[in-house]
Amino acid sequence: MTRFSRLQIHLHWVTLLLIALVYAAMELRGWFPRSSFAFSAMRTLHYNAGVAVWVLMFIRIGLKHKYKTPAIVPTPPRWQHHLATLTHIVLYVTFLALPLLGIAMMAYGDNEWSLMGLTVSPFVTPDDDTQFLLKDIHETLANLGYVLIALHAGAALFHHYIQRDNTLLRMMPGKSDTSQTH
Q1: Domains of the chain, with CATH numbers?
Q2: What are phi and psi of 119, to 5 degrees?
Q3: Which of 106, 117, 171, 173 is most buried as measured by Cβ atoms within 10 A of its Cβ?
């Protein structure tokens, strides 16, 4: 097996697309007045895409345990393998924690919001101090997400163009190995 399963590959790229939507909605909503439809639409997109990322991350973790990770050829140095493992763990933890922090922030802020078309009412006692703390953590972690995404993409390109191994090719869509069924 020289590549990840088709399902893993597709979910990787769908996750990237959703993360891009989350960040774009977050950045673009500031262009609109708070009371505008566009601001509300960006906010709703941010929430819904964030929760979708959260769900996909759990599915991807399950698939990571179901399928064997294809080997990198030629084999990189051990320190690169350890650094990649650490970076992946931090990426997963970050994109699992961000939606939870966002939901908690909304709840403590006494905000009613929409998730996948359903209205979610606050479910905890509102607390401005807790909301602001959660907001700071959420925003800091989201900014770390930019760095992690850049490191992840940069490492894939480094492996492809400098080390000339199959790291990037293992996750590229296209014709799948015949040994894979999904």
Answers
A1: 6-171 (1.20.950)
A2: -80, 130
A3: 106
